[in-house]
Amino acid sequence: MSSQKEFKQQVRKLYHKLIAAFGIITISVFLFIYIALHPSAFKNSPEETSIIAVPEVDGKIENGIHLATGFVDGEGLTEVIQNCTNCHSAKLVTQNRMTEEGWVATIRWMQETQNLWDLGDQEELIVNYLATNYAPQKKGRREVLTDIEWYTLPAN
Ligand code: HEC
C-alpha cells in the first residue's frame, strides 16, 4: 500500500468520525431544545397526568349560561368543564342540587368507585362553584298552607 493511499484512508476515517460527531451534536441540540420547550412531556407528576382529556373549552356564554355545556357562568367554570364533563354529560351535574357536603360526598364517591382523579388544589374552587351555583333551592316544595277555612261536606 502506498503511503499516499494510506493517507487518503486516514483522511476518510477522520472525515467519517467528523460526520458522526456532527450528527450526534445536532441530535443532542434538537433533543435539548425539544425538552426545553416541552418540559411537561418528561414529567410524570400526578397533576400533569391526572386529566385524561381536556375537552375543548368553548367560551361562548349567553345570559350567564355557557352554551356548550349548559353550566352557569361563574368562578371555577373552566375547572368544572375540564374535570366534570369527561365521563358524563354536564347535564348529570346541572340537574343536581346539593349542599357543599353533598357535592364533596359525590366527588368522593366518584373517586372511590368511578376512577375520578384527585382534584388537587382545584377541588376547593370546583366545590365552591358547585355549592354556589347548584345549591339546594330553599323552596323545593310549596309552603305549608296556613289560614285555611275548612268546610264540612254535607252528609247525604
Ligand atoms: C372519571 C369519570 C368521572 C368524572 C371525571 C366525573 N364523574 Fe361524575 N360520575 C361518574 C360516573 C361513572 C357516574 C355514574 C353515572 C351514572 O350513574 O350513569 C357519575 C355520576 C355523577 C353524578 C350523579 C350522582 C348520583 O348520585 O346520581 C353527579 C352529580 C356527578 N357525577 C358529578 C360530577 C362532578 C361535579 C364532576 C367533576 C368534579 C364529575 N362528576 C366528574 C364518573 C365521573
Task: Describe this protein's structure.
- By secondary structure, the chain is mostly helical.
- The protein has 2 domains: 3-42; 53-133, no CATH class.
- The protein has helices spanning 3-37, 46-50, 77-84, 90-94, 100-113, 123-133; strands at residues 61-62, 65-66.
- A two-stranded antiparallel sheet has the order 1-2.
- A hairpin with a 2-residue loop joins strand 1 (61-62) and strand 2.
- The chain is rod-shaped.
- The protein starts with a helix and ends in a 23-residue tail after the last helix.
- The relative contact order is 0.09.
- Heme C binds at residues 83-84, 86-88, 92-93, 96, 106-107, 110, 114-116, 126, 130.
- It comes from Flagellimonas hymeniacidonis.
- One of its GO terms (molecular function) is electron transfer activity.
- InterPro entries: Cyt_c-like_dom_sf.
- This is Monoheme cytochrome C.
Total number of distinct structural domains:
2
Give the low-pLDDT segments: none
Largest sheet: 2 strands, antiparallel
Output the structural class.
mainly alpha
Q: How many helices does DSSP assign?
A: 6
Distance between the termini: 137 Å
Strand elements, count: 2
Overall body shape: rod-shaped
**Small ligands present:** heme C
What share of residues are in beta strands? under 5%
- Percent of residues in helices comes to 40-55%
Radius of gyration: 33 Å
Q: What's the helix-strand series?
A: HHEEHHHH
How would you write the strand order of the largest sheet? 1-2
Average of the residue pLDDT scores = 87
